[in-house]
Amino acid sequence: MGLRFGKFSSWTNFQLQHSDGWQNTSVEDPNQTEFLITDSRNKTVNRNTNWQLSERLGFSPTRDLELYAAGSIYGKRIYRPSGRYAAVDVKTYDLQYSNASAAVGGKWKLNRTDFLTLDVSWDRHAYYYNFTDTTLIDGYINGRYTPYYPYFPGQTDLQSDQQRTFGRAEGCLPLTLRKTRLVRALNGATTGSRRRCASLTVRRQTKPRPFSYKMSSDYSIRCKSRRVYA
Fold first, then answer.
1. What's the Rg (C-alpha) of the chain?
2. Neighbouring residues of 133: CB distance < 8 A, sequence distance ≥ 6
3. Which long-range contacts (CB under 8 A, 24 or more apart) does 184-193 make?
4. What is the pLDDT of residues 52-110, one digit of tens each?
């Protein structure tokens, strides 16, 4: 749904999807089991529900300046039915996904050909076990390895949590022909001048190390430029 009030604009989107899942056959492959199983509860596609809500707000104080703020949240749960054959169709937890994102930025048009942009965004992707029966799991609890740690119905256990912060600045400004120095945008563009468009990207990614849940960070900076002719 999109709305506009003078210099302000709003765009809202909501999506909801659900599937009851289906089962092609209740017979398990006899080569994979100790005996023939004809009443397995394993499904080809498990029942699942996912939804997403996103919002983007815009503000244009002048014809040449555009600002925005955006965000979204996403959730998905996969329901896994449990049977009575251990290691075949016994499931003691569902799968749950929780994602979120946020971004702010803007674009300043200096003239018909030159501009400056700045964008900063953040994303998170988290994955959980949502327990439906008592389960004993080996893992790290509060930084210490704990064998056979009990989880009970209704509890969740974080399996993965990845977060990323992304920043980008980009500009397309004129350069003089004789001297490759930057000409201030306020001087305007001259006929036959060259322009160099450059962008600077900064990333920070946070992700858990395997089997420890201790967070590690990766930083990367990338610069690039291109030459264009007016």
1. 27
2. 82, 92, 93, 153
3. 185/110, 185/111, 185/114, 186/110, 188/111, 189/111, 189/112, 189/113, 189/114, 189/230, 190/230, 191/230, 192/230, 193/230
4. 999 999 999 999 999 999 999 999 999 999 999 988 999 999 999 999 999 999 999 98
| Contact residues for 171 (Cβ-Cβ < 8 A; gap 6+) | 114, 115, 116, 117, 197, 198, 199
Whole-number Å distance between alpha carbons of 160 and 2? 35
pTM: 0.73
Q: Are 182 and 197 in contact (CB under 8 A)?
A: no
DSSP per-residue letters across 143-207: TEEEEEEEE-TT-EEEEEEEEEEEEEEEEEEEE-SSS--BPPGGG---TT-EEEEEEEEEEEEEE
Among 189, 170, 188, which residue's Cα sits nearest to residue 229?
189
